[in-house]
Give the backbone structure.
Amino acid sequence: DTEVTQTPKHLVMGMTNKKSLKCEQHMGHRAMYWYKQKAKKPPELMFVYSYEKLSINESVPSRFSPECPNSSLLNLHLHALQPEDSALYLCASSQIQEINTEAFFGQGTRLTVV
Amino acid sequence: GDSVTQMEGPVTLSEEAFLTINCTYTATGYPSLFWYVQYPGEGLQLLLKATKADDKGSNKGFEATYRKETTSFHLEKGSVQVSDSAVYFCALRSIRGNAGKSTFGDGTTLTVKP
């Protein structure tokens, strides 16, 4: 299994809503990532988890709250988002310290904040 | 820090034309280099990779050679098809980055016309 599965594929939420994005992988990867991607732009790193611990937070606003319940799952909790947070949110995983291997990306969640 | 510079797009070609997308990088040490492709509405897929100098990555008719002397990893294809229309990202992974996070270029949009 070489897939990263993200749910939901599409999400529309109001600015007062609370929602969660989910990501799952079964490749035994111990590094997992959240990226935000705007149209026609490269992915921007948000968070990195290494061995289920948060190792990088790229100064992301607190309305985004990541969680890594176990080595296969990664969540992104959303609260009080702004319209400018509308984007494609990508989850990825990779082997830690094995830079010869690629990161595997999910299909993304297309988020629209209204 | 690490960086990747890609040729600016968009690139529009006729079917069966030759494709080159330039990519140069800055990194300390010996990064691994990757080309990812993103089709409309989807996540990123690995196209090819090279992990050491003079390595050639290839897949689906695309090729790129890791040139340490020119710090380049240009993507080429001899005869493009309409189905190759997508956004192409050059990326690197360096051990200096925590958990080997990926650094992306800005992406190049390719449109192939029949």
The longest strand of chain A covers residues 18-25. Chain A touches chain B through 30 residues (CB under 8 Å).
